[in-house]
Amino acid sequence: MFNHATRPSAPKGISFPEQRAWMVRHQLEAWGIADPRVLDAMRRTPRELFVPEAEQDATYDDGPLPIGDGQTISQPYVVAHMTETLRLRGDERVLEIGTGSGYQTAVLSLLAAEVFTVERLARLAQLAHQTLERWGADNVRFRVGDGSLGWPEHSPYDAIIVTCAAPVVPQPLVQQLADGGRMIAPVGPRGYQDLVLVRRVGEQVTQERLSPVAFVPLIGEHGW
């Protein structure tokens, strides 16, 4: 999550589609999200489907929400910002590490040709799979396992998005990045991190630190 002290949450008392449109205008566009494809995907993705029943009233608040098993669904701005950083055109093969509720997965499914998503927790993976199937996403493949190892059988990937924090960028993910590919990941100690943009051009790999964030830890061989 970001420091969002001055970014407003959607008003209550209006329908979810109205809250979603409000969120796009006031939490995303007003705070610098400009890619029209990302804004359209955020406008089309019903976040309420991916939020637990107990948290429905806070669906379009500007903040993360618990989804069980110690995990969270990221605030909408973080989802949009990380997605926009990947600069997806629509023909990419994307790897997502940390399926969680499936909300980020849903957004990616509208922006890429194929999405491969890995979740460590079987219960969350199953719920996300069911929700995405009901919603109609037909270009997503799921795996339960150690996300820090990626999904090498389907590599290389044009883009990789990591939705849980590692102390350093996991090398197996770097190795699975295609030539010209981009990866966005939270990197740093438990409790707070920086978003890091990784670019690969041939054998050259660069890292650029972006915004401060706080994500749940990536548990695995190349995580915590």
Structure description:
The protein is α/β, with parallel strands linked by helices and 224 residues long. Helices cover 26% and strands 26% of the residues. It is built from six helices and nine strands, in the order H-H-E-E-H-E-H-E-H-E-E-H-E-E-E. It has helices at 16-28, 36-44, 76-86, 103-109, 122-135, 171-175, and strands at residues 65-68, 71-73, 93-97, 114-119, 140-144, 157-162, 177-187, 193-201, 204-213. The strands form two sheets. The chain has a seven-stranded mixed β-sheet with strand order 5-4-3-6-7-8-9. The protein has a two-stranded antiparallel ribbon with strand order 1-2. Helix 1 (16-28) packs antiparallel against helix 2 (36-44). The longest helix is centred in the middle third of the chain and has 14 residues, at 122-135. The protein is globular, with a radius of gyration of 16 Å. Residues 1-5 have low confidence and may be disordered.
Q: Are there runs of 5+ residues with pLDDT below 50, and where?
A: 1-5
- End-to-end Cα distance, whole Å, is 19 Å
Order of helices and strands: HHEEHEHEHEEHEEE
Q: Largest sheet, described in full?
A: 7 strands, mixed
Helix proportion of residues, in percent?
Answer: 25-40%
What is the 3D shape?
globular
Tally the beta strands. Answer: 9
In DSSP terms (H or I, runs of 4 or more residues), the helix count works out at 6
